[in-house]
Design brief:
single chain; 117 residues; alpha+beta; Nuclear Transport Factor 2, Chain: A; 6-stranded mixed sheet
Length: 117
Amino acid sequence: MVAAMCAAVDRGDAQDFASWFAEDARYRFGGNAATIGRDAVVAATKGAADSLPWVRHTVDQVAHHGDQLFCRFTISTADPAGAQVDLPCVTIIWVENDRIVDYRVHMDLAPAFAVAG
């Protein structure tokens, strides 16, 4: 599931990414307010991906604990000067009936927007 979800985001397919979510799933990225529902997941994912020139996920670790997945990633993209930036990310996923019901992304996108100087 995790690798397929990452591949969907990397190719810019927010709809495919969101297909793993329950209709009433909760999605929270960093300090932003949580969004509710699969359509909101599509919009939030598209918005985040569209704000970057490109994105590539490397799955560093996935740990299962009951109905939760703890995922550690390296997210690669480019800064405004075009230099590659590798960002650490941790995501906590709650699953019920093979669908994601709660998805929380913990990462700082600021380095991707910083101008070196």
